[in-house]
TrEMBL record:
Its main location: membrane. The chain crosses the membrane at residues 43-62, 69-88, 108-135, 147-166, 172-192, 251-271, 297-325, 346-364, 370-386, 407-426, 432-450. One of its GO terms (cellular component) is membrane. This is APC family permease. It is a multi-pass membrane protein. Pfam families: AA_permease_2. It comes from Streptomyces griseoviridis. It is found in: Membrane. One of its GO terms (molecular function) is transmembrane transporter activity.
Length: 610
């Protein structure tokens, strides 16, 4: 009593499930580590995407790297402010699909869903490919095995997510901190050095193919916009934050924007000053790292931290796409099985589909980061534009205090992201963007057709309406396929007697001697159930039973309509590895009966102990 035992007995503590309770939710710093890796890790490939485009005009064209990066950073600032508004309006999670569904209507919600699916799949592929590039920069010996490394990383992520190991923000804080410190170290130390401490990679001659013009600058800008991916992740996960959720999520969004903007500008300054051009077997970020730290241990730590963070960034899609697919399943736009959760809980069907699609992309692109980037950013900017446009309609409809200022902010974001999306599409169309142009409408058509099917099914089933009284049957007949007298037969006949008014066992034999032996065994057992044996000279099992059931159905139709059921006994081994040793005739019979008759088909399992 003195030590408070009585109080604990009167007020017992019920263990919380994972994710329940405010302490299990995210602080701003934890949210930054858990939800910002996709955006922060884009510094590994975003600046390099600009350099790869500009260098075709010669090393002198690299002076345009900084102005282009400043334009991208301005767009980033607009997006951060705009998504702060999304967080305030949609505290239950303001993903582009949710915003479009609420504020823009069904067609735009289909467009948002399709673009998000493309975005999530490409996030996995691009992050893994960029991670393999970073690993190859530290260890050039694996440069020829990047595709294999990507597929192994994808397999690891798939297994982990199928197993259901939940992300821990506290665990992610360490690699995120190491990554951010390492990148800021590259910028600060690199700016203080008068010349690079070391040069890595093999020299590649620069071939001037065109002059620096508006079209080339637009192409570089569109490629660099890949650095803006992941900005929306915090707005999608507002319910994951501790109270006050809106304020914490907005602070996290601002921290993300500040960190990403400073890193992009700092790296662009170094690229412009040192005229960093692509070199063989290393990334531009690896060159800047070597220029700041040399080629010692700090170089390896930085590249390994980049690889790890990119792997973790790929994992964010495994948390996002299966949830999106479950929402689409709930809205009848995907098969309902995508809404099923395992006990852990995990949306396993969504995880498997994501892994398969990402694997196909990696194989098709040979894990080349810059073949994937043109596909990557278009879906992202479609989602950006839809969410901002939806907010403009929300403010115009609700008209709260200061709604015009908020509408201007979101409208500016919508215009800028739509312009950026058009630039991406026009400049990258022949480089692979056409794939997205085809994939997004096909996904929209798929979602619409599935929804139409579920609507037709609901109408035929009269869901939501009170049905007529059930038909009253005169009785029931249960047909039990048997092979011989055994415990399996005893189980099946016993279950049939409990279910039906009349039970008939039916066996199929092609050998008269076996038929006679079965009759004798049945008479000796005498279960009180009639046994009919069907002769099958061709030793066929399924078709004779189906014909027998069909004759029973026809006779029943002329006699007044009894309910007919077929009860099929099945042996289930204790271990799955033994299933192949059991015949599957029962499942085949059940499938054929369901396809050709309207009888009730039941499977009765007999579970073995071996």
């Amino acid at each position: 009593m003195v030590y408070g035992l009585a109080r604990r007995q009167l007020r017992p503590k019920v263990p919380l499930r994972p994710g329940e309770g405010d302490k299990q939710r995210l602080t701003s710093l934890e949210g930054l580590s858990a939800l910002s890796l996709d955006a922060l890790s884009s510094v590994a490939y975003g600046p390099e995407a600009i350099v790869v485009v500009l260098v075709v005009a010669g090393t002198g064209a690299l002076t345009a790297t900084l102005p282009i990066t400043l334009a991208i950073t301005f767009l980033l600032a607009v997006l951060v402010i705009s998504y702060g508004q999304v967080i305030a309006v949609h505290p239950d999670g303001g993903g582009a699909y949710a915003v479009a569904r609420k504020d823009l209507g069904p067609r735009f919600s289909l467009l948002a869903a399709a673009s998000l699916v493309v975005d999530y799949v490409l996030t996995v592929a691009v992050s893994l490919a960029a991670g393999a590039d970073a690993l190859a920069s530290a260890f050039p010996a694996v440069a020829g095995e990047k595709l294999l490394i990507c597929l192994l990383g994808l397999a690891l992520l798939t297994v982990v997510n199928l197993w259901g190991v939940a992300e821990s923000a506290r665990v992610l804080m360490l690699p995120t901190l190491v990554f951010v410190v390492a990148i800021f170290g590259v910028i600060v130390v690199g700016l203080f050095r008068s010349h690079p401490a070391a040069v890595v990679g093999t020299y590649q001659p620069v071939h001037v193919e065109q002059t620096l013009g508006v079209l080339l600058i637009l192409k570089a800008f569109s490629s660099g916009c890949s650095a803006l991916t992941g900005v929306e992740a915090i707005a999608n996960a507002v319910p994951s934050f501790r109270t006050p959720r809106i304020r914490r999520a907005q602070v996290t969004e601002l921290m993300l924007g500040a960190l990403l903007g400073v890193m992009l500008i700092g790296l662009a300054v170094l690229i412009r000053r040192d005229h960093v051009v692509p070199r063989g077997d290393v990334t531009v970020l690896a060159q800047l790292t070597a220029g700041a730290y040399g080629d010692g241990w700090a170089y390896y730590v930085t590249n390994l931290s980049v690889t790890l963070v990119l792997l973790l960034a790929a994992n964010t899609s495994f948390g996002g796409l299966p949830v999106l697919m479950s929402l689409l399943a709930r809205d009848h736009r995907l098969p309902h099985l995508f809404g099923l959760r395992a006990e852990r809980p995990v949306y396993r069907y969504g995880v498997v589909v994501l892994a398969l699609l990402a694997a196909l992309l990696l194989l098709a692109s040979d894990a080349d980061t810059f073949r994937l980037i043109p596909l990557f950013a278009i879906g992202v900017f479609t989602g950006f534009t839809l969410s901002q446009t939806g907010l403009v309609r929300h403010w115009a409809g609700e008209r709260p205090a200061g709604w015009r200022r908020r509408a201007v902010i979101n409208g500016t974001g919508a215009v800028l992201t739509s312009v950026a999306g058009v630039i991406l599409l026009t400049t990258k169309f022949l480089e692979g963007a056409w794939v997205v142009v085809i994939a997004v409408p096909l996904l929209m058509l798929l979602f619409a057709r599935i929804q139409r099917y579920y609507t037709d099914v609901g109408a035929e089933l009269q869901l939501g309406r009170v049905p007529d009284p059930p038909d009253r049957r005169a009785g029931s007949l249960v047909i039990v396929p048997v092979g011989e007298v055994s415990r399996l037969t005893r189980l099946a006949v016993g279950a049939a007697l409990a279910l039906g008014d009349e039970v008939v066992a039916v066996a199929v034999h092609g050998d008269p001697r076996k038929s006679q032996a079965l009759h004798q065994a049945w008479d000796a057992w005498n279960p009180g159930v009639r046994l009919d044996i069907v002769d099958s000279p061709h030793h066929s099992l399924v078709q004779p039973i189906v014909d027998y059931v069909q004759r029973a159905v026809d006779e029943n139709a002329t006699e007044g309509g009894r309910q007919i059921a077929v009860l099929i006994p099945e042996v289930e081994p204790r271990h799955r590895r033994y299933e192949i040793l059991q015949n599957q005739r029962g499942l085949l019979l059940a499938t054929v009966l369901r396809a050709r008759t309207d009888v009730v088909v039941c499977l009765v399992p007999f579970r073995l102990k071996v």
